[in-house]
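Q: What does the assembled structure look like for these inputs?
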Amino acid sequence: MNAAAGYSIRRDLRNGAIAGLVAAVVPVLSLAIHGGTSMPISEGGAWPLALAAAQLLLGAVLGAAYGALFSGQPDSSAAGLSTGLLYGLLWWILGPLTLVPLARGRIPGWSLEEAAAAFPSLIAYLLYGAALGGAFDLVTRAAARGHPDVPPAPSPAGGPHIVILGGGFGGVSAAQRLERLLARDHTARITLISQSNYLLFTPMLAEVAASGLEPQHISAPVRAALERTEFLRADVEKIDTAAQVIWLGASGPADPIHYDQLILALGSIPNFHGLPGLEACAFTLKSLDDATRLRSHVIGLLERADVEPDPAERRRQLTFVVAGGGFAGTEMIAELRDLVHSVRRFYRRVRSDDLRFVLVHAGARILPELNPALAAYAQRKLEVRGIEFVLNARIAAARPDAVVLTQGEELPARTIVWTAGNQPHPLLRGLPVEKNGGGAVIVDRTLRVPGASNVWAVGDCAQVPDAYREGGVCPPTAQHAIREGTVAADNVVAELHGNPLRSFRFRTIGVLVALGHRTAVAEFRGVKFSGVLAWFMWRTVYLAKLPGLEKKVRVALDWTLDLFFPRDIAVAAAGPILVDGRRGTEHTGAHAAERSSR
Amino acid sequence: MSRSYILHRGALPGAAAGAVGGLALGAAMHQMGMLLTVASLIRSASVEAGFAVIVFIAVILGAGFGMLVCRQRLETGEMLFWGLTYGALWWFLGPLTLAPLLQQGGAAWTIGSAQASFSSLLGLLWYGAVTALAYAAIGPRVSRERARVTAGTFVGGMLAGLAGAWLLGGLVGAQARWLGDARLGHLSPHPMGPLLPEIGILAGGAFALLYPRLRDGTGPTLIRGTAFGFFCWIVGALTVLPEIEGMGLAWSLDAARGRFPLLPAFLLFGAVVAVLYRWLTAAAALLFLDNIEARDEEGVGTRGLRAVGRGALGGLIGGLVFTIIMVRIGVLPIIGQIVGASSPWSGFIVHLVIANIIGATFGLLFLGRSVDIGSAVGWGVSYGFFWWILGPLTLLPILLGTAPRWTADVAGALIPSLVGHLAYGAALGVTFYLLEARHNPWWISHSEADSIRVERRREQVLTSAPALWALVIVVALTLPVVLTCGMPPAPSGYSMSSRGTGYGRDGPDTRLQLPGGPSTAYGSAGGTTSCGQGAPGSGAPHQP
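A:
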């Protein structure tokens, strides 16, 4: 049994060649009996011994190929004989019916006449194949004698242990790449540790918050995405890069985990910059929990507003503020507007005049990463839909009933969504490596972390130099994180094998921003799109990028149903989350857990 | 495995089973009057001596069979195909090689010798089947996993058989009408003609008895059913039905040629019976059993869609390989006629679409069934052969507005297409396997669950799957060649004279010329199909 002794192409070739030599006795005997040959070496006039030697050589070569291709057969003479017979007859088609006519300058016709004329060689190939299969079984069994007839133990000790921290885009793409690169190296172990057991597709998070998609449909279980990688759902307490060990929290194994190579893909968490009241009052949009709670909160406010007698309070309840005019903030305010307007008819006392959607942005224009013309289009489109823009303004503080701007202005609102700042995972603070001002680990072009041996970093938690802009750094986007994960995996394997490392080089392919209600803007390498076409592109591209076929189907169904039916307003929570200005401990805990997983 | 095990669990019960097979073979040969020929091997002129020689050889071969298969899964249904394959192998080894070697000092590897020994092929297949069934009955009991035949499975088998018989009746009826052959009349034209229900019930019931618990998925079951259909052709069309008609065994070359149109019908019949039986038993298990462990596989919705994609890609690559042969034999315009076009490019597009669709079905049917390149090629080639029967022999003529024509000469004219289908299947199977094995190759077990899966896949090879692959390719490559050579050309207006694959509506405009001209055509211009050695255009080596 070949699997028992591990995979070895050299051994299979050798065993196959030996079996082929033994089986070649069939054509050689045919040669001896008839003075001719039935294998495709039959030019007349050759010295019989030379012809016999050629037959043996051909038999050995075909046998070696058989050994390489058919090495997986279990101990079974009958199975060996049958597959050998199959192999021999396929060579009859390929040899006498195809290659031999070609070698003689004729185009094969595979006709009845040709098949009939080649019938003697059919028998020769058939018997040769059967003998080859039987002999290969005997040779393999003799060679493997003494080896236990059991499959190899899972992940035998001795191989390198590669640990990935974080189950986001960067971490999962690194694990998938490692699985492919190390497919035939059964000694290597790959472990991925994350606080959540799913890969969240963040581009669609705003749609979940807006009740357009089911939460589970945009989250792919990591265990399903990775077939070989061991997965641990746990908190990481400490990383010791000197001893190359990781300590996990109470949810994980008590013993520290040793690694030979470590890939940091811890992601980022919201950064409130210490502004008063924000951490307690603001919603963020980093996790599924964030999205579902925001949805429940908004629908809860609509329920309250529908019975609220005080007009001022009702306006406060129906004012929604989003901080940050980047991709996430713009998409969020657009989706919030869509959600509220699509379900407003269920709340008969809520008038459209009471609804207010405000986007607060520190810059002079929204979407600063986007082409100015497209950004202007987006702003114009959203303004037409009733969204207010407060530009060149920052949030100074937040209270349960209002948002305070730096200029002193107050926006009476019971909802503020914070998308105006992220920071790398706090676990990185304890690492003795160089970090940038924001706390991200600085890596070189190969994604290696200088100052720590065998450590690599990708995604939002790393500052990756941009190969196309001297002194620039790569933006913290999903498309970068995925490619960084791939390159990190390549370099980990190269490091293990002593091969040269490759540099990370990637230029943003394009950006897509959904503006709600079948409108979007997109830019691909300088080519601009807007409107319905861009919206269609947004959906097509992100559906294609959504991990997992099953999730693709589910999201496609969600979108299709959304065309015909109103959005769902059923909520589990009894009322708005932030009415009393404080979130429950359950929410805070889950929130923190999700944050740290990124 | 010790020598003692092989002796006591392989050779001895195998010899006993071989004796049973020898008795069956001897009886058949006696009826055909061939025992005297056998007796001449020991320079005797007595029928009894011939019978004794048959039984003696049968016992030795039976011992070899037992030694060979004693490691396999010893179930009746699995043994049947090992026996058939073993019998087929011994036809090449015995009557065509060893016997002439001993008698004349040289092997008889010519097409003429093969045709002369055709009844021996059927005899050895018959012997192999009886020996295998006897070995399953009297063989080692320790390791045998005997599944119970319940009334439900039996009824399921008979229902599947009846449905298959309805199809068989329709197909054979169309053949009989076209051929005007009275010998096929009792099976037609009405779908539920006099004998069809009995044939369906018997075959379906026998299949249920052979496979009370089918482990395979639909794809392997389809191939198993096709091979079972071949067995039914031998037992039914060539043995029992001629006996009922009072014609004796139809094991001669001419008789088999005459009943060749029933072969594709029985192959499709077997496939339908097996697949329906598989689905019926699966539906019954779904409704009446609560075996959660048996349903640990992922559903079609997750890996199934991916398998469709992989299969479609495999089908595309297989289709491109097949295109080489199609271009050579100039059949692409005929394929284009399916959509009413006649240009080669239209045919090429239609061909690729069909290749894609068949590839996608392969992905669904054979998902996770390839343990290595060997099984990938095995299932692929078998599926390719099935589609040769279903495609160019059956569906293509129907799509082109004519009845399927299953005579041996038509099959002979379609041998290039057969080679193409086998190459297509091999390329499809290998591509699909490589795509499937990109992640988590079977030879590595990373966890306990994977180990179980790997073991389950490896178990497949211990079933009769390898025997099925071998049997299918032997039947595919041998029968059309042996049965067709030397036959009169096909009816006027059909394949031989059209120099194409024989399809197309009436009229010369649909007929094609082979690129190589008349000399490379399928049929000769004379009275019989030219299969002589050294045929023009043949690059194959020859026997002296």
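The mean pLDDT of chain B is 78.
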